[in-house]
Amino acid sequence: MKFRFFWGLLFCTVSLHLQAYKLKAYIPKENPLGIGVIVCPGGSYFWLDKEIEGDSVAVWLNENGIAAFVLEYSHAGWASYAYHFRAPGRTFPAGYKDLCRAMDEVRSKASIYGINPARLGFMGFSAGGHLVMHASEQLAGQARCPRFVVPCYPVVSMTHPCTHKRSRRGLLGEFPKRALKDSLSLEKHVKDNCPPVFLMNCEDDPVVDPYNAVLLDSALTAHKVQHVYERYRTGGHGFGSVASKTTTEAIQWKKRFLDWLYALFPSKQI
C-alpha cells in the first residue's frame, strides 16, 4: 500500500508539471466571415484526445475558412485515473479558467488571427462538450460570452442516473459533495440568454449515455434558447470530424453544423 501511494503521488506530481495550459492556433488562408472556434477535446477530464477531437477538427474547420484554436485545458491526468490520487489544481474550476483565458487571449489577438471577436465560439467533445457548455452558461449575458457553442456527444449531468461517472470523478474528485455536483449539472443551469447551441450525439453512444444530450435539449427548449439538436441513430462516440471513426449517418453533423453556422453569420465580417 505504501509503495502504491508513493508512485501515485509521484506520478500526480509529474503530471502537474506536464499538463500546462496550451493553445494551438490554426489560421486559414482566407476567413471571409471572420469566424473563430476554440476547440476543447474530450477525455473524461482525465486525458485529452488531441488528435481526433482536436487537431483533426481544427484542420477541417480551416478547410472551410474558419480559424480554430485547440485548447489543452487542465485535467486530472492518467495517474489520477489509475491511482485515485489528485494532483493540486487539476479539478474544477481549473479547466473552466483555462477556457476563459483562451477566450481572452484569442480576442486580444483577433486582428492578428483575422477574426471578428464578436464571432468567436466554443466547440467541445464529450467532457470537452461539458466544459464549453458550462462556460457558456456561466458567461451568458457577459461581454466574454461566446457567440455560439457546439457540444458534441457531451457529458451533461453530474447527478442524474445517466451521469458519466468517470468524467465526474475526473472533474470533481473521488467524493464530490451534492451541491458541487448540482452546480456542474448543465441541465439545471441553462439561462434564457445562453448563446445559440448546436447539439449533437448518437443514440448508440456506448460511452456517454445519450440521455445526457436529451436532458440538455429539454432544458434549452424550456428556456427558449436558440438551438438545434442533431440526434443520429448510429455513430458511436469519440469520432470528432473523422469519417472513418463513425457512420455515414453521423458524419453528416459536419455539413449540418456549417449550414447552421453560415445561417448565423450570413454576411462578411464588419
Q: What would you note in describing this structure?
A:
It is globular and about 50 Å long. α4 crosses α6. The model is unreliable at 1-18 (pLDDT under 50). The protein starts with a helix and ends in a 6-residue tail after the last helix. The protein has a 7-stranded mixed sheet with strand order 1-3-2-4-5-6-7, with helices on both faces. The chain has 270 residues and is an alpha/beta fold. It contains 10 helices and 7 strands.
Strand content: 5-15%
Give the CA-based shape.
globular
Helix tally equals: 10
Low-confidence stretches: 1-18
Helices and strands in order, then pairings?
Blueprint: H1 2-18, E1 22-26, E2 36-40, H2 51-63, E3 67-72, H3 78-83, H4 94-108, H5 110-113, E4 120-125, H6 127-139, E5 149-152, H7 165-172, H8 178-183, E6 197-202, H9 211-222, E7 227-232, H10 253-264
Parallel strand pairs: 2-3, 2-4, 4-5, 5-6, 6-7
Antiparallel strand pairs: 1-3
Summary keywords:
7-stranded mixed sheet, 270 residues, alpha/beta
What does this entry show, briefly?
The chain has 270 residues and is of the alpha/beta class. The protein contains ten helices and seven strands. Helices cover 39% and strands 14% of the residues.
